[in-house]
Amino acid sequence: MNKWINMRGILKKVIGMILLIAAAVMIVLNFQKKGTESSVPEDESISEEADPLAHTSRNWEDYIQMPDESQIEAANGHARSPYIAFYMSYPGITKAEEYCVDFHADHQPIGTYICPITWWTDLSILREKYESVYNDYSDEPGGYCGFQRLEDGSRVFIMSVWDIFCKDSEGNVDLIVPTVIYPKDQGQAFEGDVEGSFVQCIIPYDWRPGRDYRLLLQQSTSETTGNVVWTTWVCDLAEDSWTKLASFDVGSSEVNLGSTGGFLENYIEDRAGDVRTMELSNFKARTAGSSEWIPAESVQVRYNASLGIDADEYIGSANYGTDGASFWAITSGVNGIGRETEEVEDFDLEPGDTSDPYE
How many CB atoms lie within 10 A of CB 351? Predict the structure, then answer.
C-alpha cells in the first residue's frame, strides 16, 4: 500500500511538472506570435498614462455620431473619407514673409494627412516678364507642408514645392525647379505626376495624438544663390522644443509666399472608415519689413474639392466649423453620422495670439 501511495505521489509531481512546462511553452509561443504579427497599428487612445503631455481638445462625440467597429470595417476599401480643404483670409495681406498656426489632432489613424499650411506663390514679378506663368497641375503653383500617418503606423512630415513654368511670347518655356537644401539629399523630384511637377521632402517626425504643436513657415534669401528660401519649423508646445524640418531653395529671387490654406485628408481607402480630427488655432502672418503679426479673420471651407480627384471618389460624413480663434474638423468614411454639409462655407475667426510665435 505504501509503495502505491509513493508511486501516486511521484505521478502527481510528474503531471504537475508537465502542466507547468506546457503553460510556459504557451506563454513563449504567444509572446513570439505577438512579436511577429504584421497587424496594422490602431489609433492610440489619448490618456495621461500613455502620454502625460496629451489632452483631448474637445468632446468629439458632440460633433459626430461615433461609428462602431462594424461600421468602420464596412466603410473601408471603397473610397476615401471626406476631404476638407480650407482657405485663410488675413486683412490687408496677399503675400507674407512668415505664416504660423497651432495644430492638434486627437484622432490620427493610419492614412491621415493633416496639412496646416498650403500656400500659393505670389508670381506678380514673373508675370510682368512672361506671357504666362503656371504649373502643369495648376495655374497657381505653390507648396504644402504637413504631417502624415503612414501605412506601417509611423509618422512623418512632408513638404512639397511645385515647379514654375514661365512661357514667353514666342512660346519658349523657362523652368524654375526648387531644390531641397535641408536636410541634404532628401529631395525627390516628380514630373508630370497626378499633382503636376514638384519636388518633395519626407522626413520622420513623431507627431503624437493629443499633443499641441506649432508650425512655422518662413521666407528668407539664400546667401549662396540669392534665391528665395522657404523653411519650415515645428514646436512641441508642451516641451517648448523647436525642430527645423525642411528648407527649399525655390530657384528664383522673384517670387513670394502668397495666400494660404490647408486640408485634412484620408489618403488610404482601406482606412476610410476611421475617425479623423484636426483643430487649428492662432492663425497669423507677418509681412516683410514689419514686426507685427496679423491674425486671420475668416476661413472658407470647400468640401471634397481636391484637384485631380472627383467628388464621387469620397464617401462618408463630416462636421467642421470655428470656435473663437480655432478651426476644427472631424471626418469618417461612414455615411449618415455627421451634419449636412455644403460645397463651400465661410466662417469667421476671432483674433488669436499675435505675439512672436518663437518667443
Answer: 14
